[in-house]
């Protein structure tokens, strides 16, 4: 929720946002993931999994919330195959990221991160609602995501149900427990 006098803006991310958003993601994970993941998991996930997927930026489906001009949160959606991970994860996986059929495959909710100073103020919910509306407008009937443990409580309040618990094994052997989740639009 906005505090008195704050100007909150939701906008599409640009290529110029990628480096600052990767810094926001780093701060978000280091500030909000302890208690869900240990230090080794956090470091490995930042190195191999968490980060901006520049394809979403290029597709125009990745968003930033600014509070008084400060990047406070980011997140997006995709109509492509990749379910999770930033550019470095896709490079590790050598992923092909082809578009999916909206009638047959859910849109992906991707890479939601909030700066700890702005946590629990509705930023992620606002981005999600925007993403869900766009995905529905593009013909998708459901949404899917790979929820990290800090995000799972939010996604449950947004109506997502866990399909399966997944152990993502990163290239260095570190395991990141996650939950693959889905909801209808």
Give the CA-based shape. Answer: globular
**Topology pattern, helix = H, strand = E:** EHHHEEHEHEHEE
Low-pLDDT segments, ≥5 res: none
Q: What is the terminal separation in angstroms?
A: 24 Å
Average pLDDT, all residues: 94
Write structural notes for this entry.
The chain has 185 residues and is of the alpha+beta class. It is 32% helix and 29% strand. Strands 1-2-3-4-5-7-6 form a seven-stranded mixed sheet. The longest helix has 15 residues, at 18-32. The protein is globular, with a radius of gyration of 15 Å. It starts with 7 loop residues before the first strand and ends with a strand. The mean pLDDT is 94.
List the helices and strands and how they pair.
Layout: E1 8-12, H1 18-32, H2 39-48, H3 54-59, E2 62-67, E3 70-78, H4 87-93, E4 107-114, H5 123-137, E5 142-148, H6 152-157, E6 161-169, E7 175-184
Parallel strand pairs: 4-5
Antiparallel strand pairs: 1-2, 2-3, 3-4, 5-7, 6-7
Descriptors:
185 residues, alpha+beta, 7-stranded mixed beta sheet, 7 strands
What would a concise description of this structure say?
The two termini are 24 Å apart. Helices cover 32% and strands 29% of the residues.
